[in-house]
Amino acid sequence: TVYMGRGLFHHVFHRLHKSKKEREPAAEPHKRFHHWLSPNRAADTADEKIRRCVTTNKIEPWFGRAFSPHTEQATALYSFFAQTDQEVSLKKGDILIVEFHQSEEWLEATNMETKKKGFIPASHITMERNVTKVLNAWQDINRMEAEWKLLMSGLPHGTFILRPSSYANKSALSVLFTSDGPRKIKHYRVTKDSTTNEFKLSSSKSFFSLHQLLRYYTDKVNGHHRLLSHPLPKPPPPALQAREFSIDRSQVELGKRIHSGSFGRTYLATYRSCEVIAKRASSSKSRSHLLEVGKLLHQLSHPRLVRLLGVCGDNSDDQPILYITEYAPRGRLQDFLRTD
Fold first, then answer.
1. E strand spans, the chain
2. What is the pLDDT of residue 33?
3. Domain boundaries, the chain
4. Per-10-residue mean pLDDT, the chain, length 340
5. Strand pairing category for 206-207 and 199-200
6. Going by C-beta distance under 8 Å and a sequence separation of 6 or more, which residues neighbour residue 31?
7. Best CA proximity match to 139, nearest among 174, 98, 111, 170
8. How far apart are CA 67 and CA 106, in angstroms?
9. Is 171 helix (H, G, I), strand (E, B) or coil?
10. How is domain 41-126 classified at the CATH fold level?
């Protein structure tokens, strides 16, 4: 039996303890909770900024318009001719006071030019102010839609669209460039000074109106080309969905028959000066069932779905029921995909 002195014991103990710590893996420093939750803080911060921007500039104003009783000023993008006593006619550029949102398709408004009050189609107006003199350039679309439209073949250098911005109280200018390399789209933010009410595309030049701004950059030569050439032509307004589901048969003019099937016959037709499709249901179908299905389809609304505009006929009508839908010029998707 041997023993160890106190000094030697402490010396050996510290050496053993030190070697043990060197053999063990180093403990990771304590991670703060937000680090554990968000490994990529920069990406999360950017996402949160986008969410706040969308909430502030898109969602909250939409709820305000939907549930607030106050009125809003609007401008007519297209002319519209009333066909019932409850509707009011519009001319392009008319100033309107929108008082009631009946649905996404129809609004109740007063035309300040004629002082008449009635329903107007939402697709024919814009809530954006300051665009009365630039209606040919203005389109209520987002950035992605603007790029898709401007990248269509055949458009010249400088073709542009003036559109809403994702930032509050701002507009955006989307411009096509074809001179240097491949075709590309550039987006410019148009700001309005809240003090002077002047518009700017850059920090150097101010304008009293959007019309002056567009005219300046259309005339000004930047390098070898003007920044802007001409606005992208707006498409015609979409076919209007009936407010109350039912369409007066006298408003529909049938054209040539283009298809026959188990459901019935399909015709090209005209409704409110727009080309549409009229599907005449066969007499073997239950009339009440057809009307019930029609009411359900009338409630569906999506940019990628062909809309049911309305139905001609009811349970007391002896004539065949007509389904009036939007016209798809290129026909069925299945047939289109099979073409070269």
1. 72-76, 95-101, 106-111, 116-121, 125-126, 160-164, 170-177, 184-192, 199-200, 206-207, 221-222, 225-226, 252-260, 264-271, 274-281, 308-312, 322-326
2. 45
3. 41-126, 133-226, 249-338
4. 47 56 52 50 66 64 54 90 91 89 80 92 89 92 93 90 85 89 90 87 84 88 74 90 88 90 88 91 80 88 86 82 90 78
5. antiparallel
6. none
7. 174
8. 16
9. strand
10. SH3 type barrels. (2.30.30)
Report CA torsion sign: 212, 214, 218, 223: positive
Strand partners of residue 185: 176
Amino acid symbol at 120: I
Burial of 31 (0-12, 13-18, 19+ CB in 10 A): exposed
- Rounded to whole angstroms, the Cα distance separating 199 from 192 reads 4
- Please give the Cα distance from 47 to 45 (Å, whole number): 5
For 68, 170, 340, the CA distances from 100, given in Å and listed in that order, are 10, 25, 48
Contacts for 203 with CB less than 8 Å, ≥ 6 apart: none
Q: What is the DSSP string of 2-24?
A: ----HHHHHHHHHHHHHHHHHHS
Using alpha carbons, select from 237, 266, 243, 256 the residue that is nearest to residue 324: 266
Q: Phi-psi bin for 45: left (phi > 0), alpha (psi -120 to 50), beta?
A: alpha
Contact, 131 vs 19, CB < 8 A?
Answer: no
The answer to whether domain 41-126 and domain 133-226 are alike in fold is: no
CB 98 within 8 A of CB 74: yes
133-226 carries CATH number 3.30.505.10: yes
Rounded Cα–Cα distance for residues 97 and 312 (Å): 32
For residues 37 and 155, give the distance between their C-alpha atoms in angstroms, rounded to a whole number: 48
- Token pair of 170, please? 């701002």
Domain boundaries 249-338, CATH class: alpha beta
